[in-house]
Amino acid sequence: MSIIEIRQLAKSYRVYQKREGMLASVKSLFRREYRNVEAVRGIDLDVQKGEFVAFLGPNGAGKTTTLKLLSGIITPTSGTATVMGHTPWHRDNDYRRRFALVMGQKNQLWWDLPAIDSFRLHQHIYRIDPAVFAKTRDDLADMLDVRRLMNQPVRELSLGERMKMELIAALLHSPEVLFLDEPTIGLDVVAQHRIQLFLREYQQERGVTVLLTSHYMKDIAALCRRVVIIANGRIHYDGSLSGIIDRFSSDKIVTLQLGDETDFKQFANMPGLTSIDEPRLRFRVSRDEVASTLARLLADHQVNDVVVEDPPLEDVIASIFSEAGESQNEPASAT
Amino acid sequence: MISAIHTWWNFFRLAFSERMVYRGDFMLGTLMRFLPTLTQIFLWWAIYDVVADSAGLTGSSTGSGSTSMPGGQIAGYGYGDMVAYFLLVTVTRAFSSMPGLTSGISRQIRNGEINRFLIQPVDLVSCLLAQRVAHKLVYYTVALLPFALVFFLCRAFFVNGWPDPLVILVFVTSLMLSFLLGFFLECSLGLAGFWLLEVASLGFIYMLFNFFLSGHMFPLELLNGLPAWMTTIIDWMPFKYLAWFPAAVFLGKVDQQTMLVGLGVQIAWVAFFIFLTRLMLYRGLKRYSGFGG
Q: Which residues of B touch A113 (CB under 8 A)?
């Protein structure tokens, strides 16, 4: 049985619309206009124990809403979900003791007190055995290299250090399921890398199930074997990272390095051309035509080097996002 | 159960140490608290002077510089009573006022800080209560000395001396209840943030009612001139338990039966607002959309 089961889960918000200007403000006192925003439009998903799954999608795609539904912060409009057999939005204490949510943009720690005080509170909230608590805390602090900072007020920590403390606080009770909402947002490359390493090591060691949302492809490439692309409240893809290219891109990028060719103008009208950087020529061609195109060029010109590669993943994903974005602009239902 | 108390205690301890970070701010706040009371004492001095004058009760000279109390009575309060009343109201309000509670809750709802209480196995209202008890205890610790000093200096105004033990018992019980009443009343106002984007106007209306109908600005006996139906309504409303009731009990302004009935009504109001808070939290969370992020 899957540890997370989602069936036809949907959530829509009613958003108050206000037109610009003073007159409109007065009018809105008497008659308000609302718009239904369908943040999640019926998704199905199964996650097995020990999987590390990434949610990928543009802003407003419904990633965070899905995580909020799964952590019981909000109640869905329709559909069902179970995590470890619990319905999240019933908020049973049994469930709440077994998962954790980390939001990169929110903090759970007490701002004016050292992190160690917040950790102590978590020990009591989650009823962690004192010996286990001390060991878990020190192990995590060592893994993230922040042991010496635990006694410093949280407000005096850097963003990266604070994020590490947030992670420790969330992991103290050894959750079986972990939801991470953009855990590396706003962090520098070094701190991002440190947190990626930590998450990978922790996940492999403990076999916890992790759902992660992120905008950074590096996070996802480093951590997740399974990627779920959400856009416009729907799942557009569910599979491996490399599978995205096979599925969504039928093109290859070919780079040729030409020998003693001088007249590069003849290539200017070539179909699929992306750049000319003498003596290098780069173009995009559909997968089936790679062989024939290359054969023709090799016959006509002296070619010193050939590189055939997949288009960059970021580009492929960006085009999936923008396609989904266009279908999103269908007229919104006003009430 | 034991474990729940333990969690609660730790939450309380943490809130306590957090508050202590701002102890300087607290000290200043405590001193400032007496300024309005002082103004009121002088204002009433002038009023009693005028009343005594017009009634021909020139027990004391009307000129400034006189140190004896002006004579005369207003709504059953002599000048000494009146000063004692305002000092006691300062104490009552130290229990019943909840600075920042309503706005704090609605802000937490608006920016999604409330989320952390939803994902952890804790109860939002209990956490807020623990936090508030901690705030109050820090405040009392800091305020005890200045309060004692002011009361000692003003002891002459308590013309009847110490009341009897039963009255003191009712007074103390009523103070505790006024803390709970203030807390749950403002909690339910704050939870209106689930439905309204901005509860500041609601808070303002509450403040106005509180000013005039709780006995904060003047003893409620002054309202006896109003039509009977109005005084009856005011009498049954919860506001008077936030300031007037404990002070009036201490000063012996209410007879024993009224005192005990009043305590019963106060308990009923506390129970009502506990229920309302729970109901609003339950309904509010159903429509909550976890704003932010």
A: 14, 17-18, 21
| B290 DSSP 8-state letter | -
Q: Is A36 helix (H, G, I), strand (E, B) or coil?
A: strand
Give the residue from chain A lying closest to B5, CA to CA.
A124
A7 forms beta bridges with A80
Place of tokens 């490359």: A189
Look at A105 and B118 and tell me if their CB atoms are within 8 Å. Answer: no
Token pair belonging to B92:
């009552």
A110 touches chain B (CB under 8 A): yes
Pairing of strands A99-103, A4-17: unpaired
Give one DSSP letter per residue of A205-254, joined into a string. Answer: HH--EEEEE-S-HHHHHHH-SEEEEEETTEEEEEEEHHHHHHHH--EEEE
Tell me if the bond preceding A279 is cis, omega within 30° of 0: yes
A334: Cα within 13 Å, side-chain hemisphere: 6
Q: d(Cα B238, Cα B235) in Å, to the nearest integer?
A: 8
Contact A255, A280 (CB under 8 A): yes
DSSP symbol at B217: S
Residue range B74-92: mean pLDDT, rounded: 89
Q: Which 297-316 residues of chain A touch chain B by CB within 8 A?
A: none
Alpha-carbon distance B74 to B71, whole Å?
10
Residue A173 three-state SS: coil
Q: How far is A113 from chain B (nearest CA, A)?
A: 6
Cβ-based neighbours of B50, under 8 Å, separated by 6 or more: none
Candidates A111, A116, A128; CA nearest to A168 is A116
Q: Does A101 touch chain B if contact means CB atoms closer than 8 Å?
A: yes
- Distance (Å, rounded) from C-alpha A312 to C-alpha B268? 68
ipTM (interface pTM): 0.77
Domains of chain B, by residue range, sit at 2-59+68-285
pLDDT tens figures, B95-140 = 999 988 999 999 988 888 888 889 998 888 988 998 898 888 888 8
Residue in B285, B115, B127, B125 with CA at minimum distance from that of residue A102: B115
- Asked which of A97-111, A268-282, A296-310 is least confident by mean pLDDT, the reply is A268-282
Q: How far is A36 from chain B (nearest CA, A)?
A: 13
Q: State how far the Cα of A330 lies from the Cα of B86, in Å rounded to an integer.
A: 65
Residue B228, both tokens? 């009977």
Phi first, then psi, for residue B259 (nearest 5°) are -60, -45
Candidates A128, A130, A134; CA nearest to A147 is: A134
Closest CA of chain A from B19, distance in Å: 9
Place of tokens 């009634």: B55
Instruction: Note the pTM of the prediction, 2 decimals.
Output: 0.81
The closest CB to that of B118, out of A73, A97, A121, belongs to A73
- The pLDDT tens digits for B142-181 are 788 888 888 888 888 888 788 889 999 999 999 999 999 9
**β strands within A18-68, DSSP E:** 33-47, 52-56
Question: Quick check: A155 contacting B, CB < 8 Å?
Answer: no
Which residue is listed with tokens 């912060």? Answer: A73
